Design the sequence.
C-alpha cells in the first residue's frame, strides 16, 4: 500500500474515483457522439474558443482589478487572504449566469408550460442568489478576520521570550 501511495501520490480511493469519473465521461461522450457528432464537436470547439478568447481575459482582468483596488490596507490590520472570498461567489454566480442566461436575460422561448413559472422571475432569483453568495462570503471573511485579529491580540499580550514577569 505504501508503495502505491509513493508511486501514485495519493490514496487508492482517489485513483478509483478518478478512473470512475473518466469512465463516466467516456460513456457520456460515446452516447453524445452517437446521436449528434457534429453538434457535440461544434459545442466543444465553441466552448474552448469562447473560454480562451472571451472568458479567460475577462475574469483575469476582473481578478487583477480587484487585487489592485483592494490591495491597500492599514498596516495594523492582520493579513488575511481575502481574494478567494471574492473569487468563489463571483465564479458561482458566473456559472449560474452562463448556464441559465437565456432565461435570465429573457432570450428564450417561454417555458411556462414546463416550469409553471413566468419568464420574469429568473433575473430576480439569479440576483438574489448572487447576493446570498456574496453575503455568505462576506460573513465568512469577517469571521476569519475576527479570528486573525484575536490571535494577533493574544500574541501582542504574550510576554516576549526571555522576559519573565516579576
Sequence:
Amino acid at each position: 500500500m505504501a508503495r502505491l501511495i509513493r508511486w501514485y501520490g495519493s490514496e487508492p480511493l482517489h485513483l478509483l474515483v478518478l478512473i470512475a469519473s473518466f469512465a463516466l465521461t467516456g460513456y457520456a461522450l460515446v452516447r453524445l457522439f452517437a446521436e449528434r457528432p457534429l453538434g457535440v464537436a461544434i459545442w466543444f470547439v465553441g466552448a474552448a474558443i469562447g473560454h480562451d478568447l472571451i472568458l479567460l481575459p475577462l475574469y483575469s482582468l476582473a481578478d487583477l482589478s480587484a487585487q489592485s483596488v483592494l490591495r491597500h490596507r492599514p498596516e495594523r490590520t492582520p493579513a488575511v487572504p481575502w481574494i478567494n472570498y471574492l473569487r468563489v461567489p463571483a465564479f458561482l454566480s458566473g456559472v449560474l449566469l452562463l448556464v441559465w442566461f437565456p432565461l435570465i436575460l429573457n432570450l428564450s422561448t417561454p417555458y411556462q408550460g414546463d416550469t409553471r413559472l413566468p419568464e420574469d422571475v429568473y433575473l430576480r432569483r439569479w440576483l438574489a442568489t448572487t447576493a446570498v453568495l456574496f453575503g455568505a462570503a462576506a460573513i465568512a471573511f469577517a469571521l476569519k478576520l475576527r479570528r486573525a485579529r484575536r490571535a494577533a491580540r493574544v500574541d501582542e499580550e504574550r510576554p516576549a521570550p526571555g522576559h519573565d514577569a516579576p
Summary: Residues 121-157 form the longest helix (37 residues). The mean pLDDT is 84. The chain is about 75% helix and 0% strand. The radius of gyration is 24 Å.
